[in-house]
Amino acid sequence: MGVFAHFGRYLLMLKGMFSKPENMKMYWKEFMRQCNDIGLGSLGIVAIISVFMGAVSAVQTAYQLVSPIIPQATIAQIVRDTVILEFAPTLICIVLAGVVGSKIASELGNMRVSEQIDALEIMGINTRAYLIAPKVIAAMLTIPMLVIFAAVLGIIGGRVAGSAAGIIAPSVFDKGLLQNFKAYNVVVAVVKGYAFAFVISTIPSYFGYYVEGGALEIGKASTRSVVVSCIALLGMDYLVSALLLQ
Amino acid sequence: MIETKDLKKGFGDKTVINGVTTTFNSGQCNLIIGTSGSGKTVLMKCLVGLFEPDEGSIIYDGRNFTEMTEEERKLLRQQIGMLFQGSALFDSQTVQQNVMFPLDMFTTLTYKQKLKKVNETLERVNLKDANHKFPSEISGGMKKRVGIARAIVLNPKFLFCDEPNSGLDPQTSLLIDKLIHEITVEYKITTVINTHDMNSVMEIGDHILYMYQGEKEWEGNKKEIIYSKNQKLNEFIFASEFLQDAKQMRMIEIEKGEK
Predict the structure, then answer these.
(1) Is A115 in Cβ contact with B88 (below 8 Å)?
(2) How high is the pLDDT of residue A225?
(3) What is the pLDDT at residue B258?
(4) According to the model, what pLDDT value does residue B71 have?
(5) Roughly what angle, to the nearest 10 degrees, separates helices B140-152 and B111-124?
(6) Which chain A residues are within 8 Å of B163, Cβ to Cβ?
(7) Residue B216 host element (H or E)
Protein backbone atom coordinates (compact mmCIF):
# COMPACT_ATOMS: atom_id res chain seq x y z
CA MET A 1 0.00 0.00 0.00
CA GLY A 2 1.46 3.36 -1.09
CA VAL A 3 1.94 6.45 1.02
CA PHE A 4 -0.96 8.25 -0.68
CA ALA A 5 -3.28 5.29 -0.14
CA HIS A 6 -2.35 5.30 3.56
CA PHE A 7 -2.90 9.05 3.75
CA GLY A 8 -6.27 8.77 2.02
CA ARG A 9 -7.39 6.02 4.39
CA TYR A 10 -6.12 8.10 7.32
CA LEU A 11 -8.27 11.04 6.17
CA LEU A 12 -11.28 8.74 5.77
CA MET A 13 -10.70 7.46 9.28
CA LEU A 14 -10.71 11.05 10.56
CA LYS A 15 -13.90 11.77 8.65
CA GLY A 16 -15.50 8.64 10.12
CA MET A 17 -14.92 9.94 13.65
CA PHE A 18 -17.60 12.56 13.21
CA SER A 19 -21.00 11.01 13.72
CA LYS A 20 -23.85 11.25 16.18
CA PRO A 21 -23.00 9.18 19.27
CA GLU A 22 -25.26 6.17 19.81
CA ASN A 23 -25.27 6.92 23.53
CA MET A 24 -23.63 10.11 24.81
CA LYS A 25 -23.18 8.69 28.32
CA MET A 26 -21.10 5.79 27.02
CA TYR A 27 -18.96 8.11 24.89
CA TRP A 28 -18.40 10.35 27.90
CA LYS A 29 -17.36 7.34 29.98
CA GLU A 30 -14.88 6.33 27.28
CA PHE A 31 -13.59 9.92 27.02
CA MET A 32 -12.97 10.09 30.77
CA ARG A 33 -11.18 6.73 30.67
CA GLN A 34 -8.92 8.05 27.94
CA CYS A 35 -8.26 11.30 29.84
CA ASN A 36 -7.18 9.18 32.76
CA ASP A 37 -4.99 6.88 30.62
CA ILE A 38 -3.38 9.56 28.46
CA GLY A 39 -3.22 12.45 30.93
CA LEU A 40 -2.86 11.07 34.44
CA GLY A 41 -1.13 7.91 33.18
CA SER A 42 1.71 9.97 31.69
CA LEU A 43 2.10 12.38 34.57
CA GLY A 44 4.91 10.46 36.29
CA ILE A 45 7.17 10.04 33.27
CA VAL A 46 6.53 13.63 32.16
CA ALA A 47 7.49 14.92 35.63
CA ILE A 48 10.74 12.95 35.77
CA ILE A 49 11.83 13.89 32.24
CA SER A 50 10.90 17.56 32.73
CA VAL A 51 12.92 18.02 35.91
CA PHE A 52 16.05 16.43 34.39
CA MET A 53 15.52 18.24 31.09
CA GLY A 54 15.54 21.60 32.92
CA ALA A 55 18.47 20.60 35.12
CA VAL A 56 20.65 19.48 32.20
CA SER A 57 19.66 22.56 30.25
CA ALA A 58 20.82 24.84 33.11
CA VAL A 59 24.13 23.02 33.60
CA GLN A 60 24.99 22.92 29.89
CA THR A 61 23.99 26.53 29.29
CA ALA A 62 26.27 27.63 32.15
CA TYR A 63 29.07 25.48 30.74
CA GLN A 64 28.86 27.25 27.38
CA LEU A 65 28.48 30.80 28.75
CA VAL A 66 32.02 31.27 29.93
CA SER A 67 32.34 34.98 29.17
CA PRO A 68 32.40 37.22 32.27
CA ILE A 69 30.57 39.98 30.38
CA ILE A 70 27.42 37.86 30.06
CA PRO A 71 25.32 38.24 33.19
CA GLN A 72 24.46 35.04 35.07
CA ALA A 73 20.75 35.81 34.79
CA THR A 74 21.05 35.02 31.08
CA ILE A 75 21.31 31.33 32.00
CA ALA A 76 17.81 31.51 33.46
CA GLN A 77 16.50 33.28 30.35
CA ILE A 78 17.97 30.64 28.06
CA VAL A 79 16.68 27.79 30.20
CA ARG A 80 13.23 29.40 30.32
CA ASP A 81 12.96 29.99 26.58
CA THR A 82 14.40 26.65 25.44
CA VAL A 83 12.23 24.76 27.91
CA ILE A 84 9.05 26.65 26.97
CA LEU A 85 9.61 26.81 23.23
CA GLU A 86 11.21 23.49 22.49
CA PHE A 87 11.93 21.04 25.27
CA ALA A 88 8.54 20.99 26.99
CA PRO A 89 6.42 20.60 23.86
CA THR A 90 8.72 18.64 21.53
CA LEU A 91 10.79 16.45 23.80
CA ILE A 92 7.85 15.58 26.02
CA CYS A 93 5.62 14.84 23.03
CA ILE A 94 8.26 12.59 21.48
CA VAL A 95 8.30 10.66 24.73
CA LEU A 96 4.48 10.65 24.74
CA ALA A 97 4.49 9.38 21.15
CA GLY A 98 6.32 6.35 22.54
CA VAL A 99 4.33 5.95 25.75
CA VAL A 100 0.83 6.93 24.65
CA GLY A 101 1.17 6.22 20.92
CA SER A 102 2.32 2.63 21.33
CA LYS A 103 -0.42 2.04 23.89
CA ILE A 104 -3.12 3.39 21.55
CA ALA A 105 -1.81 1.38 18.58
CA SER A 106 -1.51 -1.87 20.52
CA GLU A 107 -4.89 -1.42 22.25
CA LEU A 108 -6.71 -0.86 18.95
CA GLY A 109 -4.60 -3.49 17.17
CA ASN A 110 -5.47 -6.06 19.79
CA MET A 111 -9.15 -5.13 19.52
CA ARG A 112 -8.98 -5.52 15.75
CA VAL A 113 -7.17 -8.87 15.80
CA SER A 114 -9.40 -10.34 18.50
CA GLU A 115 -12.49 -9.20 16.54
CA GLN A 116 -13.65 -6.83 19.30
CA ILE A 117 -13.94 -4.03 16.73
CA ASP A 118 -16.03 -6.30 14.48
CA ALA A 119 -18.22 -7.13 17.48
CA LEU A 120 -18.85 -3.41 18.08
CA GLU A 121 -19.54 -2.81 14.37
CA ILE A 122 -22.10 -5.61 14.31
CA MET A 123 -23.83 -4.10 17.33
CA GLY A 124 -24.32 -1.01 15.16
CA ILE A 125 -21.67 1.15 16.79
CA ASN A 126 -19.49 3.51 14.74
CA THR A 127 -16.14 2.22 16.01
CA ARG A 128 -14.16 5.16 14.68
CA ALA A 129 -16.38 7.52 16.61
CA TYR A 130 -16.54 5.37 19.74
CA LEU A 131 -12.94 4.18 19.92
CA ILE A 132 -10.84 6.84 18.19
CA ALA A 133 -12.65 10.16 18.74
CA PRO A 134 -12.51 9.97 22.58
CA LYS A 135 -8.77 9.26 22.37
CA VAL A 136 -8.17 12.25 20.09
CA ILE A 137 -10.29 14.62 22.18
CA ALA A 138 -8.71 13.36 25.43
CA ALA A 139 -5.23 13.84 23.96
CA MET A 140 -6.10 17.33 22.73
CA LEU A 141 -7.30 18.21 26.21
CA THR A 142 -4.59 16.64 28.35
CA ILE A 143 -1.39 16.92 26.29
CA PRO A 144 -1.30 20.75 26.18
CA MET A 145 -1.79 20.62 29.97
CA LEU A 146 1.11 18.20 30.23
CA VAL A 147 3.22 20.57 28.13
CA ILE A 148 2.54 23.45 30.54
CA PHE A 149 3.20 21.14 33.48
CA ALA A 150 6.49 20.03 31.86
CA ALA A 151 7.56 23.63 31.24
CA VAL A 152 6.96 24.59 34.88
CA LEU A 153 8.79 21.52 36.19
CA GLY A 154 11.60 22.02 33.68
CA ILE A 155 12.22 25.57 34.90
CA ILE A 156 12.06 24.40 38.53
CA GLY A 157 14.54 21.63 37.63
CA GLY A 158 16.88 24.21 36.11
CA ARG A 159 16.62 26.43 39.18
CA VAL A 160 17.33 23.55 41.59
CA ALA A 161 20.24 22.20 39.50
CA GLY A 162 21.74 25.66 39.04
CA SER A 163 21.63 26.26 42.77
CA ALA A 164 22.84 22.74 43.72
CA ALA A 165 25.82 22.93 41.35
CA GLY A 166 26.69 26.44 42.51
CA ILE A 167 26.21 27.82 39.00
CA ILE A 168 23.56 30.39 39.69
CA ALA A 169 21.93 31.58 42.88
CA PRO A 170 18.14 31.04 43.09
CA SER A 171 17.49 34.79 43.44
CA VAL A 172 19.53 35.54 40.28
CA PHE A 173 17.73 32.72 38.48
CA ASP A 174 14.35 34.15 39.49
CA LYS A 175 15.41 37.61 38.34
CA GLY A 176 16.54 36.18 34.99
CA LEU A 177 13.26 34.36 34.54
CA LEU A 178 11.37 37.64 34.56
CA GLN A 179 13.72 39.47 32.20
CA ASN A 180 12.41 39.84 28.61
CA PHE A 181 9.68 37.31 29.26
CA LYS A 182 7.32 36.95 26.30
CA ALA A 183 3.92 35.43 27.10
CA TYR A 184 3.63 34.73 23.38
CA ASN A 185 6.19 31.93 23.78
CA VAL A 186 3.75 30.13 26.05
CA VAL A 187 1.08 30.50 23.37
CA VAL A 188 3.47 28.93 20.84
CA ALA A 189 4.15 26.05 23.26
CA VAL A 190 0.41 25.46 23.72
CA VAL A 191 -0.20 25.57 19.95
CA LYS A 192 2.57 23.01 19.55
CA GLY A 193 0.93 20.96 22.29
CA TYR A 194 -2.38 20.87 20.41
CA ALA A 195 -0.72 20.05 17.08
CA PHE A 196 1.40 17.29 18.63
CA ALA A 197 -1.56 15.89 20.56
CA PHE A 198 -3.41 15.46 17.28
CA VAL A 199 -0.43 13.65 15.74
CA ILE A 200 0.19 11.46 18.81
CA SER A 201 -3.43 10.32 18.97
CA THR A 202 -4.46 10.00 15.32
CA ILE A 203 -1.41 8.32 13.76
CA PRO A 204 -1.19 5.43 16.28
CA SER A 205 -5.00 5.10 16.09
CA TYR A 206 -4.68 4.67 12.33
CA PHE A 207 -1.97 2.02 12.57
CA GLY A 208 -3.80 0.15 15.32
CA TYR A 209 -7.26 0.37 13.80
CA TYR A 210 -6.21 -1.04 10.44
CA VAL A 211 -3.83 -3.73 11.67
CA GLU A 212 -4.13 -7.09 9.89
CA GLY A 213 -2.79 -10.39 11.12
CA GLY A 214 -1.81 -11.42 14.63
CA ALA A 215 0.35 -10.54 17.60
CA LEU A 216 3.45 -9.96 15.46
CA GLU A 217 1.61 -7.41 13.33
CA ILE A 218 0.36 -5.61 16.43
CA GLY A 219 3.98 -5.17 17.55
CA LYS A 220 5.01 -3.99 14.09
CA ALA A 221 2.08 -1.57 13.90
CA SER A 222 2.96 -0.21 17.32
CA THR A 223 6.61 0.37 16.34
CA ARG A 224 5.65 1.87 12.99
CA SER A 225 3.15 4.19 14.63
CA VAL A 226 5.83 5.53 17.01
CA VAL A 227 8.34 6.06 14.17
CA VAL A 228 5.81 7.79 11.90
CA SER A 229 4.44 9.88 14.80
CA CYS A 230 7.96 11.07 15.72
CA ILE A 231 8.73 12.06 12.13
CA ALA A 232 5.36 13.80 11.76
CA LEU A 233 5.94 15.49 15.10
CA LEU A 234 9.31 16.91 14.04
CA GLY A 235 7.82 18.08 10.74
CA MET A 236 4.95 19.70 12.61
CA ASP A 237 7.43 21.28 15.06
CA TYR A 238 9.26 22.95 12.19
CA LEU A 239 6.01 24.06 10.56
CA VAL A 240 4.56 25.62 13.72
CA SER A 241 7.89 27.29 14.56
CA ALA A 242 8.23 28.66 11.03
CA LEU A 243 4.67 29.97 11.06
CA LEU A 244 4.54 31.44 14.55
CA LEU A 245 8.10 32.55 15.25
CA GLN A 246 8.72 34.87 12.31
CA MET B 1 -35.68 -15.17 7.85
CA ILE B 2 -32.64 -14.17 5.82
CA GLU B 3 -32.45 -14.66 2.07
CA THR B 4 -29.47 -14.23 -0.19
CA LYS B 5 -29.98 -13.82 -3.92
CA ASP B 6 -27.15 -14.44 -6.36
CA LEU B 7 -24.60 -13.12 -3.89
CA LYS B 8 -21.13 -12.45 -5.26
CA LYS B 9 -18.00 -11.21 -3.56
CA GLY B 10 -14.41 -11.06 -4.70
CA PHE B 11 -11.10 -9.60 -3.65
CA GLY B 12 -9.06 -8.27 -6.55
CA ASP B 13 -9.23 -10.86 -9.33
CA LYS B 14 -10.27 -13.67 -7.01
CA THR B 15 -13.96 -14.52 -6.71
CA VAL B 16 -14.61 -15.81 -3.20
CA ILE B 17 -18.40 -16.14 -3.33
CA ASN B 18 -20.00 -16.88 -6.63
CA GLY B 19 -23.76 -16.51 -6.94
CA VAL B 20 -24.99 -17.95 -3.64
CA THR B 21 -28.78 -18.07 -3.37
CA THR B 22 -30.26 -19.53 -0.21
CA THR B 23 -32.74 -18.99 2.62
CA PHE B 24 -31.99 -19.15 6.33
CA ASN B 25 -35.24 -19.81 8.18
CA SER B 26 -36.19 -18.49 11.59
CA GLY B 27 -36.38 -20.85 14.55
CA GLN B 28 -33.77 -23.04 12.89
CA CYS B 29 -30.03 -23.57 13.17
CA ASN B 30 -28.72 -22.87 9.67
CA LEU B 31 -25.23 -24.26 9.26
CA ILE B 32 -22.71 -23.16 6.67
CA ILE B 33 -20.08 -25.82 6.15
CA GLY B 34 -17.19 -26.25 3.76
CA THR B 35 -13.45 -26.67 3.54
CA SER B 36 -11.08 -23.84 4.49
CA GLY B 37 -11.13 -21.18 1.78
CA SER B 38 -14.55 -22.22 0.49
CA GLY B 39 -16.02 -18.78 1.31
CA LYS B 40 -17.95 -19.56 4.50
CA THR B 41 -16.48 -16.74 6.57
CA VAL B 42 -16.75 -14.23 3.72
CA LEU B 43 -20.39 -15.22 3.24
CA MET B 44 -21.08 -14.67 6.92
CA LYS B 45 -19.23 -11.36 6.93
CA CYS B 46 -21.33 -10.26 3.93
CA LEU B 47 -24.49 -11.28 5.79
CA VAL B 48 -23.64 -9.14 8.81
CA GLY B 49 -22.35 -6.24 6.73
CA LEU B 50 -18.66 -6.44 7.57
CA PHE B 51 -18.04 -6.96 3.84
CA GLU B 52 -20.04 -5.34 1.05
CA PRO B 53 -21.12 -7.87 -1.60
CA ASP B 54 -20.15 -7.01 -5.19
CA GLU B 55 -23.47 -8.25 -6.58
CA GLY B 56 -26.71 -9.75 -5.36
CA SER B 57 -28.86 -8.99 -2.38
CA ILE B 58 -29.31 -9.93 1.26
CA ILE B 59 -32.85 -9.71 2.56
CA TYR B 60 -33.69 -9.63 6.26
CA ASP B 61 -37.41 -10.31 6.79
CA GLY B 62 -38.23 -8.69 3.46
CA ARG B 63 -35.89 -5.71 3.94
CA ASN B 64 -33.04 -5.46 1.47
CA PHE B 65 -29.89 -5.05 3.58
CA THR B 66 -27.69 -4.21 0.60
CA GLU B 67 -29.83 -1.18 -0.27
CA MET B 68 -30.18 0.16 3.28
CA THR B 69 -28.69 3.48 4.38
CA GLU B 70 -26.11 3.47 7.18
CA GLU B 71 -28.78 4.62 9.67
CA GLU B 72 -31.17 1.84 8.62
CA ARG B 73 -28.36 -0.66 8.95
CA LYS B 74 -27.56 0.61 12.44
CA LEU B 75 -31.16 -0.03 13.49
CA LEU B 76 -31.18 -3.49 11.94
CA ARG B 77 -27.87 -4.35 13.58
CA GLN B 78 -29.48 -3.88 16.97
CA GLN B 79 -31.53 -6.97 16.08
CA ILE B 80 -28.38 -8.93 15.24
CA GLY B 81 -26.24 -10.83 17.73
CA MET B 82 -22.97 -12.47 16.88
CA LEU B 83 -20.77 -14.99 18.59
CA PHE B 84 -17.20 -14.79 17.33
CA GLN B 85 -14.68 -17.57 16.96
CA GLY B 86 -12.51 -16.14 19.72
CA SER B 87 -15.57 -14.83 21.61
CA ALA B 88 -14.36 -11.21 21.07
CA LEU B 89 -15.06 -10.24 24.67
CA PHE B 90 -13.81 -6.83 25.80
CA ASP B 91 -10.63 -7.59 27.76
CA SER B 92 -10.86 -4.61 30.05
CA GLN B 93 -14.41 -5.39 31.14
CA THR B 94 -15.78 -8.02 33.49
CA VAL B 95 -18.26 -10.68 32.38
CA GLN B 96 -21.10 -8.55 33.75
CA GLN B 97 -19.88 -5.41 31.98
CA ASN B 98 -19.44 -7.32 28.72
CA VAL B 99 -23.02 -8.60 28.78
CA MET B 100 -24.35 -5.26 29.97
CA PHE B 101 -22.55 -3.33 27.22
CA PRO B 102 -25.32 -3.57 24.55
CA LEU B 103 -27.89 -2.62 27.19
CA ASP B 104 -25.78 0.38 28.23
CA MET B 105 -25.38 1.48 24.65
CA PHE B 106 -28.87 0.97 23.27
CA THR B 107 -31.37 1.07 26.11
CA THR B 108 -32.50 3.57 28.69
CA LEU B 109 -33.04 0.97 31.42
CA THR B 110 -31.94 1.75 34.96
CA TYR B 111 -28.86 0.01 36.37
CA LYS B 112 -31.07 -2.32 38.46
CA GLN B 113 -33.13 -3.32 35.41
CA LYS B 114 -30.00 -3.91 33.36
CA LEU B 115 -28.42 -5.98 36.10
CA LYS B 116 -31.57 -8.09 36.35
CA LYS B 117 -31.53 -8.67 32.59
CA VAL B 118 -27.82 -9.54 32.65
CA ASN B 119 -28.28 -12.04 35.47
CA GLU B 120 -31.24 -13.64 33.70
CA THR B 121 -29.24 -13.96 30.49
CA LEU B 122 -26.19 -15.37 32.27
CA GLU B 123 -28.45 -17.86 34.01
CA ARG B 124 -29.96 -18.78 30.64
CA VAL B 125 -26.50 -19.72 29.33
CA ASN B 126 -25.81 -21.64 32.56
CA LEU B 127 -23.21 -19.22 33.82
CA LYS B 128 -23.44 -18.25 37.44
CA ASP B 129 -21.03 -16.61 39.87
CA ALA B 130 -18.83 -15.30 37.08
CA ASN B 131 -20.17 -11.74 36.96
CA HIS B 132 -17.06 -10.09 38.31
CA LYS B 133 -14.46 -12.19 36.53
CA PHE B 134 -12.45 -10.85 33.61
CA PRO B 135 -12.29 -12.75 30.30
CA SER B 136 -8.69 -13.74 31.06
CA GLU B 137 -9.86 -15.50 34.23
CA ILE B 138 -12.44 -17.82 32.64
CA SER B 139 -12.21 -20.94 30.44
CA GLY B 140 -12.81 -21.11 26.68
CA GLY B 141 -16.25 -22.68 27.16
CA MET B 142 -17.23 -19.98 29.62
CA LYS B 143 -16.03 -17.28 27.21
CA LYS B 144 -18.30 -18.75 24.54
CA ARG B 145 -21.21 -18.66 26.97
CA VAL B 146 -20.48 -15.04 27.81
CA GLY B 147 -20.25 -14.33 24.06
CA ILE B 148 -23.66 -15.96 23.57
CA ALA B 149 -25.10 -14.05 26.53
CA ARG B 150 -23.83 -10.75 25.09
CA ALA B 151 -25.23 -11.67 21.67
CA ILE B 152 -28.72 -12.48 22.97
CA VAL B 153 -29.10 -9.90 25.74
CA LEU B 154 -30.98 -7.49 23.45
CA ASN B 155 -33.29 -10.32 22.29
CA PRO B 156 -32.01 -10.35 18.70
CA LYS B 157 -33.99 -11.74 15.79
CA PHE B 158 -30.84 -12.95 14.08
CA LEU B 159 -27.91 -14.77 15.63
CA PHE B 160 -24.64 -15.46 13.85
CA CYS B 161 -22.05 -17.84 15.24
CA ASP B 162 -18.61 -18.10 13.70
CA GLU B 163 -17.00 -21.45 14.57
CA PRO B 164 -18.70 -21.66 17.98
CA ASN B 165 -16.88 -24.89 18.86
CA SER B 166 -13.36 -24.02 17.84
CA GLY B 167 -10.86 -24.68 20.61
CA LEU B 168 -13.39 -26.51 22.78
CA ASP B 169 -13.36 -30.12 23.94
CA PRO B 170 -16.07 -32.41 22.46
CA GLN B 171 -18.18 -32.39 25.62
CA THR B 172 -18.20 -28.60 25.92
CA SER B 173 -18.84 -28.34 22.17
CA LEU B 174 -21.97 -30.43 22.56
CA LEU B 175 -23.16 -28.24 25.43
CA ILE B 176 -22.60 -25.07 23.40
CA ASP B 177 -24.41 -26.59 20.39
CA LYS B 178 -27.31 -27.62 22.60
CA LEU B 179 -27.46 -24.17 24.13
CA ILE B 180 -27.48 -22.41 20.74
CA HIS B 181 -30.20 -24.77 19.48
CA GLU B 182 -32.36 -24.26 22.57
CA ILE B 183 -32.04 -20.48 22.34
CA THR B 184 -32.84 -20.56 18.62
CA VAL B 185 -36.03 -22.54 19.12
CA GLU B 186 -37.06 -20.77 22.34
CA TYR B 187 -36.76 -17.24 20.95
CA LYS B 188 -37.52 -18.15 17.30
CA ILE B 189 -34.22 -16.65 16.20
CA THR B 190 -32.76 -17.04 12.73
CA THR B 191 -29.43 -18.61 13.63
CA VAL B 192 -26.63 -18.92 11.11
CA ILE B 193 -23.63 -20.98 12.19
CA ASN B 194 -20.34 -21.26 10.39
CA THR B 195 -18.73 -24.54 11.43
CA HIS B 196 -16.25 -27.29 10.70
CA ASP B 197 -17.57 -29.50 13.47
CA MET B 198 -19.32 -32.59 12.14
CA ASN B 199 -20.90 -33.23 15.52
CA SER B 200 -22.69 -29.90 15.19
CA VAL B 201 -23.81 -30.83 11.68
CA MET B 202 -25.35 -34.07 12.89
CA GLU B 203 -26.79 -32.67 16.11
CA ILE B 204 -28.24 -29.25 15.28
CA GLY B 205 -28.20 -29.02 11.46
CA ASP B 206 -31.81 -28.04 10.79
CA HIS B 207 -30.64 -26.54 7.52
CA ILE B 208 -27.17 -27.12 6.11
CA LEU B 209 -25.48 -25.21 3.30
CA TYR B 210 -22.35 -26.81 1.89
CA MET B 211 -20.01 -24.36 0.18
CA TYR B 212 -17.40 -25.48 -2.33
CA GLN B 213 -14.99 -23.05 -3.96
CA GLY B 214 -17.30 -20.11 -3.32
CA GLU B 215 -20.43 -21.77 -4.66
CA LYS B 216 -23.41 -23.46 -3.07
CA GLU B 217 -22.68 -27.13 -3.68
CA TRP B 218 -25.40 -28.76 -1.61
CA GLU B 219 -28.27 -27.81 0.67
CA GLY B 220 -30.39 -29.93 2.98
CA ASN B 221 -30.78 -31.02 6.60
CA LYS B 222 -28.98 -33.38 8.97
CA LYS B 223 -31.06 -36.35 7.85
CA GLU B 224 -30.63 -35.70 4.16
CA ILE B 225 -26.88 -35.27 4.49
CA ILE B 226 -26.53 -38.92 5.52
CA TYR B 227 -28.16 -40.09 2.29
CA SER B 228 -26.63 -37.50 0.01
CA LYS B 229 -24.92 -38.83 -3.08
CA ASN B 230 -22.97 -35.62 -3.61
CA GLN B 231 -19.39 -36.82 -3.94
CA LYS B 232 -17.72 -33.57 -2.86
CA LEU B 233 -19.95 -33.34 0.19
CA ASN B 234 -19.30 -36.96 1.15
CA GLU B 235 -15.56 -36.50 0.75
CA PHE B 236 -15.73 -33.47 3.02
CA ILE B 237 -18.11 -34.77 5.67
CA PHE B 238 -17.07 -38.37 5.91
CA ALA B 239 -13.37 -37.80 5.35
CA SER B 240 -12.12 -40.53 7.71
CA GLU B 241 -12.98 -44.22 8.03
CA PHE B 242 -14.26 -43.49 11.52
CA LEU B 243 -16.75 -40.98 10.16
CA GLN B 244 -17.79 -43.35 7.38
CA ASP B 245 -18.53 -46.00 10.02
CA ALA B 246 -20.43 -43.40 12.03
CA LYS B 247 -22.45 -42.59 8.92
CA GLN B 248 -23.39 -46.26 8.46
CA MET B 249 -24.41 -46.53 12.09
CA ARG B 250 -26.49 -43.36 11.88
CA MET B 251 -28.23 -44.70 8.75
CA ILE B 252 -29.09 -47.89 10.62
CA GLU B 253 -30.36 -45.83 13.58
CA ILE B 254 -32.56 -43.70 11.29
CA GLU B 255 -33.94 -46.76 9.49
CA LYS B 256 -34.70 -48.48 12.82
CA GLY B 257 -36.40 -45.31 14.03
CA GLU B 258 -38.56 -45.17 10.91
CA LYS B 259 -39.62 -48.80 11.30
Answers:
(1) yes
(2) 95
(3) 63
(4) 84
(5) 130
(6) none
(7) strand B215-220
Q: Which domain holds residue B147?
A: 2-229
How many domains is chain A partitioned into structurally? 1
**In this structure, is residue B255 part of a structural domain?**
no
Distance CA A212, CA A204 (A): 14
In a domain, B60, yes or no: yes
Q: Which residues of chain B have pLDDT under 50?
A: none
What's the confidence (pLDDT) of residue B259?
60
Q: At what angle do helices B170-186 and B140-152 cross, to 10 degrees?
A: 10
B131 domain residue, yes or no: yes
Residue A89 CA to residue A151 CA, distance in Å, equals 8
Is residue A124 within 8 Å of B77, Cβ to Cβ? yes
Is position A13 within any domain? no
Residue A69 in any domain: the answer is: yes
CB contact at 8 A, A103 and A69: no
Tell me the CATH number at B76: 3.40.50.300
Q: Determine, yes or no, domain membership for A5.
A: no
A residues 139-168 near B, CB within 8 Å? none
Residue B115: which residues within 8 A CB-CB, separation 6 or more? B96, B100
Q: What is the pLDDT of residues B42-71, one digit of tens each?
A: 999 999 988 999 999 999 998 999 899 888
Q: Which residues of chain A have pLDDT under 70?
A: none
The answer to whether A27 contacts chain B (CB < 8 Å) is no
Residue B158: the pLDDT is: 93
* Cross-chain Cβ contact A115/B86 below 8 Å: yes
Shortest CA distance to B82 belongs to which of B155, B159, B163, B2?
B159
Would you call A187 exposed, middle or buried from its count of C-beta atoms within 10 A (0-12, 13-18, 19+)?
exposed
Residue A9 resides in a domain: no
Asked whether residue B253 is domain-assigned, the answer is no
Q: Quote the number of domains for chain B.
A: 1
CA distances from B252 to B174, B196, B201, B223, B225 (A): 22, 24, 18, 12, 14
Give the strand pairing for B63-64 and B55-60: antiparallel
Contact A22 B50 (CB under 8 A): no
